[in-house]
Every structure is written in C-alpha cells, then in structure tokens.
Amino acid sequence: MALNRELERSGSWLFRHRSYLPLLILPIFLLSLRSFAYLDQSHFLNEIWQVCCLAVSMLGLAVRIITVGRAPIGTSGRNTREQVANTLNTTGIYSIVRHPLYLGNYLIMLGFALWPHVWWLTLLTSCIYALYYERIMLAEEAFLLERFGDAFEKWTDATPAFIPRFRQWKPSNVPFCWRTVGQREYNAFFLIISVFFLLDLIGDSLVEGNWHLDYAWFGVFLGSFVIFAVLRALKKRTRLLHVEGRLRQRRPAALSAPRPAAKGIPPDASARRPHLKNYKGFCPAPKNMNRQFSPSNREARTLSCDIDRPAQSSFTALATENWR
Asked: Is the domain of 138 the same as that of 8?
C-alpha cells in the first residue's frame, strides 16, 4: 500500500509537468544522429522511410482526434494543476482502451524514434515512455476510482489500459465535432510536421556535409505553419471554434484579472479567508466617526459610515463592488 501511494504521488507530480518533461529525451535524439546515414545508402529509400515514420506519428494524431472530437466538457482535457473528470467516458474509443490520449502520444513519439533507423533509440524511448506514463495513469485511475467507485471498477475490468481491444467497440453518445478538434489539436499537428522537417534538415545536412534544404519538406512545413497560425488566431481572437457544452473555455485575461481594491479593503477577503466571513467590515473614516457594517444579503454587502451623503454613496458603491 505504501508503494502504491508513492507511485501515485510521483504520478501526480509527473501529471502536472507532463507537457515539458518529454523534452528531456531530446539529447538522446541528438546523440542518435551522430552516425546518421541514408537507409541502404539511398536517399530515395530514406525518403520512403521518412514517410512511413510520419504515417506512424499521424496515426497517433488520428487517435487523439478521435478522442478529443467526442470529448464532453470536463474530460480529456489539458489541465495540469489537478485531475478533472465531470463524467466517466465508457463509450467510443474509451470502450476499447482506457488511455487513448496517451496511446496517441506514444505513437507520435514512436514515429520520431523510428526516423533515425537506430534500434536502440526506439527501445530506449519506449522504455522511458512506459515508466513515465505508467505512473501518470496510476495517479489518474486512483482519482477516477475515488470519484466514480464501482462504475469505474466495472469499466476497468472490461477495458484494457493501453492496448486496444477492438471487438468491444461501443458507439459514443457524443457527436463528433471538428471545431473542438481544431481548437485542441493544432499544436500537436504543427509539432509533428516541425519535428520531421527539422530531422530531415539535420539528417540531409550531416550526410551532404553542408546545410541542405529539402524544398518538399519546407513546403509542408510552411503549409502546416499557416494552418497553425489560422487556428490559433481563431481560438484566441474569435469564438468560431467554441462549442457550447464541449470544452471548458478560459476566461479572457481582462475578466480574470483581480479587481482593484479600495484603500484598506482586501479584495475577496471572505473568499480568501473563511474566518472573515462574518467580518464587521472596515471604513476608512476618522477614528472619531461611528462605523457600522450592514450586510443586506450574501450577494452584496454595504459599508455605511456617519459621513456626508455624497462621500457615503461613492464609498458604498466601491465597497459593494469589491466585496462581492
């Protein structure tokens, strides 16, 4: 039991940093390129091999698209601070595998690892991935077990964790949405194309002995960048990709910023300090003036002072605004 808790604790830490830790594999990739050569000394065969590797990574992206395209709100998200699950997905791709997003991530990484055609890189990457995501999966499943109980146990008994069991497919009750896919997966698409473009540039330059730009890959890279820029702009500046009831939307920065506090009154004090819930209030009036706190309701609380009417009205409005 103690070991399980330790694995869950490390898995929770890895979960919060899972967006950046895979970059630690980058030095291993660079090391594998030291002795890079074309497959069977043929540039044509090497190009075919690159297309096959790209197909493996795109298969991983397809798995992610199938998963995200039918994800309801509060599930299959990119949250990193804490585990979030409003519902338990047991249909669609979740009826054949419990962690389809991580399966898609592995296929994307596998395509990268196969590119230098070095056997030890593929083996080492797979081992690191297994150790890394095993703990994340354990932490996630501990959270889901605590939240959904018997329903989760029944689902795990019938559904494999990582290797799909296609014969038990159940159609999803959530319609597929391309706008959700465009909102979520444009980063992964651009990442895949960028990595293969850079690998081709580095590989060709090492073999040729000088910088060699493959214009076909460069054109694909530019096209993917245009798609990335358009989708990012649509997501950040418009609501065209927003679908009500599918994904939780971030509040604009202008709405998320804390309101300026009145002098002497901390913003949202009752929310940050529960012991101040019944706080008598504060009025920045001279000490010889009487002070009285009269909460009208939970929504709006008014501070009133024995001061002249114009000053009282302006201060009351400001205090009410900051204490909501």
From this structure: yes
